[in-house]
Amino acid sequence: MSEQSFELASKDKGNDLFKIDFKRVGYRALRYWYLVVVTLAIILTVTYIRNRYAERIYPVTASVIIREKEDSGGGELLYKNSLVNPYRNYLNEPYILRSYPMIQKVVEELNFDVAFYRQGNIKTTEAYNLPVKARLLKKNGSYGASLLFKALSENSFALKGATDKSKYEGEIFQFNDSIEYIGHHLIIIKDPLKQIKEIANIPFLLTFLDPLQVAGSYVGRLDVQWAEEGAGVMNLSMRGSNPNKELDFMAGLISTYQQYDLDKKNQAAERTIQFIKGQLSDISDSLHIFEKQLEQFKIQNSSTGMDEESKRLFERLEPLEVQRAELAIKQNYYSYLDGYIKRGGNLDLVLLPSSVGVADPVLSSLVNKMIDIQLELKLFIGTRKTENPLVQSGLKRLEEIKNDLRESIRTLKDTDKFKTDYLDSQIKELEAQISHLPLVQRQFISIQRNYSLLENLYVFLMQKMSEAGISKASNISDIVMVNPPMQGGAVSPNTTQNYFFGWSIGLLIPFIAFVILELLNNRIQSKEDVDKITSIPFIGGIGHNESKGNLAVIVKPKSAVAESFRAVRSNLNFFTGNQLKKVFLVSSSISGEGKTFTTINLATVFALSGRRTLIIGADMRKPKIFGDFNLTNIRGLSGYLSQLNTFEEVVQKTAIDNLDLISGGPVPPNPSELLLTERLADLFAEAIEKYDYIIVDSPPLAIVTDALALSKFSSHTVFVTRQNYTPKNFLKNIEDYYKSGKLKNISIVLNDIYKSGLGYGYGYGYGYGYGYGTRKGKGGHGYYTES
Could you tell me the pTM of the whole model? Predict the structure, then answer.
């Protein structure tokens, strides 16, 4: 196999018919360079249009860090603040950032659900950072509707329906006024720092979008990744065609995320403050009543205090009462928490245990986890995606935490009951001792006892409310911006890459087309094709005949065609050696390959060399060779084989010296049978006695087998093929004849070479390296008389 070819089918030699000659493909590309140029120009034009009008996509990036809980805020530096939630699941943060509720909140706050579009001749693009902004005052759900907006002056603008194609300017309104138009209640605000003349009299399409759909677009484009494993830094990135808008969105998202984190922290403190305020209101009224009672008692009894025994008993009783009151508050909180869990609802709004003095770490941890999971579920349930596996997993974990909380509450209630029973027994003993005191002292202790209890509770609650207030005031978000939103260079379209692919495709398409043509072309093109298909020796090539008729050597004896026949004549001597009398059989696979043309001119060059030469027209079915010499066909081979004429009668002299002709004669009914008679041998015996060279023009082998009957009398068989005409499969059949021994001493001539260049193997012998122009005549077969 040649270096420029490869097998497309099996390794069988028969598949050589389907090899690609890349030299020939390359030559065809050079020959039809204008097709390559046109294809390349079309592809590059398409590439230019795409690069020119395709949306430019820009990346926008930012990064934030989530401070760890060891990075204490101001409130925690003042005292150990148990109101600050220590629990945070960092794996949930990317989901929180990309949640629909949060993104939709950013979209609505930035007013991205209302957009202006500039209509161009080819495409429509969004116009951002205009000197005006539109905002819907009532969202009536008519999303997707559009209005035509045109700024007229610094104070006024016009609106009309987007489908209104009339020259009507539209209804005129004033900036910064709320308006109602075609069912839309909106306001268009003018930026006082910008001038309207930038957009004056330019029509814009004012479109109202669904915030949820806009949020979905940003959710799909926003990418949130941890910078690296174990780090608290998250990288945020997205791509968009409007970099200024994407920068504003990214900044708004980080700000909303920070506020979300701060609000989450402040929820516990705010709920505690509201709860304690209600408790203080009730205690304050009761405390005021007992304070009046104590004051009135002292006035009426002229008493300023208790005696030593009363004071001792009161000092022992007071802390027990305070402890029992604290346990009662805890019991109330347990009941509140148990009922709150059973009711369900917004579990993230529950009071933290620490807000009422419950310091149990297990209970606090479970409540914090319950709040965190409830917040996560809100983010997903807000998208109406309750079938989300994360939602299902969260609901399952929430139910488990509820069960753990109920069990923890039961345990704490039982523990506090033991403490309460013990305190009650201690208080009863002291009350028994107090009953032995004088009446005045007993009354004083009772009033002082109630007053002190309420006072201690009031102080306790005031302390808790102060802690909550300090916590709320000192809270800061754990979300800190590391890198602000930044815009990168355009990533799409990649003009350099597109032009590279444009050049590649523009060159590849014609190349593939030429390869396909090469694959579909099953006709002989060059000597290399002959060598790939058959092992029959190649004797030479004959160029395209531009002269009229088949007498090319006589008409132009010094032409390249004449020289190529002389080269074939010389090469034939290598096959016949020193044999004095020679018979050459000229045949082909099908008609039209130039078999008669080759016979005439090969015989001519032999005759011109001074050798007596005879042409035998053995094609008795279509005898035509006599016409080229202006002779008759009255007598010929058929008459001799039928014993109607003698040898001398059928031989006709031509105008060329040393060249005679035996034409086919009248068409017989049985040409094949005539060739099998003994008269054929007599013919050759008599011809050899009188002539040096005998050239036999036989019928095509693929049509009839007459050539096989004639081959046994020939010294050598010249098989004629024609460039871009002879089917490769037919040449394969001749190879079978050659291998089987039916045709011996055979060589191949490539006729009518008109294609020159790489892949056509020119340069073999005289005339085999020349180009002879284009074919003429019907079908492009040249001026051949043979069909």
Answer: 0.56
